[in-house]
Specification:
Number of strands: 0
Largest sheet: none
Order of helices and strands: HHHHHHHHHHHHHH
Number of helices: 14
Number of domains: 2
Strand content: under 5%
Oligomer: single chain
Shape: globular
């Protein structure tokens, strides 16, 4: 078990390091290729988790200890957020407080940076902001030369050509990072982890990420800043759902934002007194054992949130995508002089109608099926569905 735990820790560190390295490299490459706005936005997303962690630590100190308390300088370590997170993950295998702090910091990177980068890079590609080899590869696919795309990709090329596909690597690494964060945050700390539990949760989270991220990215291409309207409605619905479950407002807000791309925090208790960005006014005391009635209530609360998460997502994104489909196919709002939509996106309308809309619908149906499977299996067969929240020492 010790070797497996250490292997898991190494895997988490590798995923984190690769994801951060690729994000920074992609931002720099975009700036060097004269796409300054998109490159700076990519780098800002990399800085977000560290900034949020610093603000959370300062907020905690000011609220509970005063600005000159004994822990008033703890935020200084967070100025080197990536390195500090790696150190905490490495020490977490032998020290429980370090493990909880690493989980907290790692979750910030997953829910903020990885989710944001996944949406951002899909929007960037949809806009036609391509660098290096990816631009030539897309141009090759669009022009439709006689050479097979697979042969073009596998032909002898210098190493720099493959580095030029970094935008694709960022999308893949961000998806893996977000998926790992979701599984780790919602499932990892349960008392009886098992392989078949992962066989259900991984497809469930994956399908939910795919349909929600694809929907937000597609809406962003055409709605521009107005995409904040459906996203804002989703966040409000999530916050209300958590409040209905009895969580305090700060934690409801944090979990509500994290649940934009997938459900998060539905099986965690209220925050302890010292938890930043999700505190509770009264100190919460936990029982090591719960009665069967309490267990049933906790399971029912998780099922209700997952149902609300599914219904609200289908309602808001469904209406938004249906409206977009009507505008694309029955209006001239996005049609340019050549009869296409190239001024808005490089993706042809035929591809959007034939593949993207049906793909989002298929991912949503898959998420719906796995929501039912998850509720009927994991939430019914296990007794420790509510896990203790993260604590910072």
């Amino acid at each position: 078990m010790g070797a497996i735990k250490h292997l898991g820790t190494i895997s988490l560190i590798v995923i984190f390091v690769v994801d951060v390295f690729l994000d920074i490299s992609c931002g720099v490459e975009l700036i060097l290729n004269d796409h300054t706005f998109w490159g700076c936005l990519t780098l800002v997303l990399v800085l977000c988790p560290g900034l949020v962690a610093v603000l959370g630590e300062v907020y905690k100190c000011c609220l509970y200890e005063g600005c000159c308390g004994r822990n008033a300088t703890d935020w200084i370590y967070l100025l080197i957020y990536p390195l500090f997170t790696i150190v905490m993950m490495a020490l977490g295998s032998i020290h429980q407080p370090c493990d909880r702090e690493a989980m907290y910091l790692r979750s910030l990177e997953g829910f903020l940076t990885a989710a944001g980068q996944l949406i951002l890079q899909l929007v960037v590609l949809g806009r036609g902001v391509l660098i290096h080899s990816l631009a030539s590869l897309v141009n090759h696919l669009i022009t439709g030369t006689q050479e097979h795309p697979g042969q073009h990709f596998l032909a002898d090329k210098p190493l720099r050509w493959y580095w030029g596909l970094i935008q694709l690597y960022v999308i893949i690494s961000s998806f893996i990072s977000l998926l790992q964060t979701a599984v780790h945050f919602n499932e990892w700390e349960k008392k009886r982890p098992s392989l078949w539990r992962l066989l259900i949760t991984i497809p469930y989270f994956s399908s939910t990420i795919v349909y929600r991220v694809s929907a937000i990215a597609l809406l962003s291409l055409f709605y521009y800043q107005y995409v904040l309207i459906p996203v804002g409605i989703i966040v409000v619905f999530n916050i209300v759902s958590f409040k209905i479950l009895g969580l305090d407002l700060p934690r409801s807000i944090v979990y509500g934002v994290c649940s934009i791309t997938l459900p998060a925090g539905y099986n965690r208790c209220k925050a302890p007194k010292l938890q930043p960005l999700g505190y509770s006014c009264d100190e919460v005391r936990y029982q090591t054992e719960r009665s069967p009635e309490q267990l049933d209530i906790l399971k029912e609360r998780s099922k209700r949130f997952l149902a609300l998460h599914l219904i609200f997502g289908a309602l808001v994104f469904g209406i938004s995508l249906a409206l977009l489909w009507v505008m694309l196919n029955f209006s001239q709002l996005y049609i340019d002089e050549d009869g296409g939509i190239q001024k808005t996106t490089i993706i042809p309308l035929e591809i959007i109608n034939a593949y993207i809309f049906p793909g989002i619908l298929a991912a949503f149906l898959s998420s719906t099926v796995f929501t039912g499977v998850y509720c009927c299996t994991i939430l019914c067969c296990f007794e420790e569905e509510y896990i203790y929240p993260l604590t910072i020492h």
